[in-house]
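Hi support team,

I submitted a single chain yesterday and got back a structure, but I'm not sure I'm reading the token output correctly. Could someone confirm the output below corresponds to the sequence I sent? I've pasted both exactly as they appear in my results page.

Thanks,
R.
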Amino acid sequence: MHTQPHADDLQIRHLFERSMQAWTAGDAEAYGACFTEDSDYVSYDGTRAIGRAQHQANHDQLFRGVLAGSALVGELESIRHIAPGVAIVHGTASVLMPWRSQLPKRRLSRQTVVVVRTDQGWRIAAIHNGRVRPITVPAPDALPSRMSRLMTRTAHRLGIGQRTATIQL
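Hi R., thanks for writing in. Yes, this is the structure output for that exact sequence:
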């Protein structure tokens, strides 16, 4: 049985497409308009920007600088409504530089996006953009796993390691 997409899903899909169009047009203002005033943006390198104004300013610099003439291409993978007016969206996208005709695989990113329904329509409240770099997890009996367990036992015996580690930002 074929079901019609929910009206909210169509609007969310349009928001995703509109953000890619704004990027490709190099229009930081239109790109910023896709976000809520207090939105969070975590870039592929782990940096965090807070607020539409900061996203817009950052992208204005990018669009006039290192990403001038680039296109953002991608596809929306899924929409999951988690509460009325709130959904989690996953998509993949990549920046296509003007001198390329194909996307390099190493530039593919996956976005986890929280979208919310506002008086102005659906907007992005948070986005986390991470490079797609799948790794193979070693089996528990593989050499890397055995070495990790040996190093852990040694560190515990010596009283060093995670018990005293702190995060330095």
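A quick pointer for reading it: The helical segments are 7-24, 28-32, 52-64, 143-158. Let us know if anything else looks off.

Best,
Support desk
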